[in-house]
Amino acid sequence: MENKSNLIQVKSSLWSNIFKTSSDDVKIISLLKKFPAFSELRKKELREIKRIVQVREYLPNEVIFFEGDPGVAMFIIESGKVEISHTFKSGLKQELAILFSGDFFGEITVLTEGLRTATATALTETRLLIIFRPDLLELIHKDPELGVKILLGFTQILVEKLRILNQDYLNLYDLIQMEKKS
How does DSSP assign 84-140, residue by residue? Predict the structure, then answer.
């Protein structure tokens, strides 16, 4: 029987599969495909977006951004849990949402300059895909056909959020009217 400690392991680049993508790349592309603004894109287009994605890991209770910070990026949660909250002038903190793997936030400021309207905090170890506004705008300008698809996708997200906000407003109005009558 051979003594394995005496064996030399040699890896030759000649025999490696240079066309194989890393499992991390596959995971990121899959997550991008699930993001509503990118769901209709072809694999080649998703790879273009993947090129501008940055990945960052956060520790539990680490703040991703504070309310009032300049919004320069959007985030897609690969793993972990994120709290979105607002702190009122009185100091009262209100949880607005708890987001999980596959959820996204900050998408409005990736299209328009503005300040963050809430604070985002990692509640657990969290891994985020980050797309910065300048990188996305450069991609849109570089490939206008892809840019139109991306902007139409973001428009769908914003329209859906506006519909939900409108329904919330109408429900609140209805509740106030009922309170006035009683």
Answer: EEEE-TTS-EEEEEEEETT-EE-TTTTTS--B-SSEEEESSSEEEEEEEHHHHHHHH
Pairing of strands 63-65, 93-100: unpaired
pLDDT at site 22 = 57
Tell me the per-residue pLDDT of 129-151, one tens digit each, with 9 for 90 and over.
999 999 999 999 999 999 999 99
Distance between CA 150 and CA 131 in Å, rounded? 13
**Contact yes or no for 73/110 (Cβ under 8 A):** yes
Backbone angles phi, psi at 141, to 5 degrees: -70, -35
Residues 13-39 pLDDT 10s:
455 444 444 568 899 999 999 999 999
In this structure, which amino acid lies at residue 102?
G
The whole-angstrom separation of Cα 109 and Cα 72 is: 6
What domains are there in the chain, each with its CATH number?
A: 22-181 (2.60.120.10)
Contacts for 20 with CB less than 8 Å, ≥ 6 apart: none
Asked whether 123 and 83 are in contact (CB, 8 A), the reply is yes
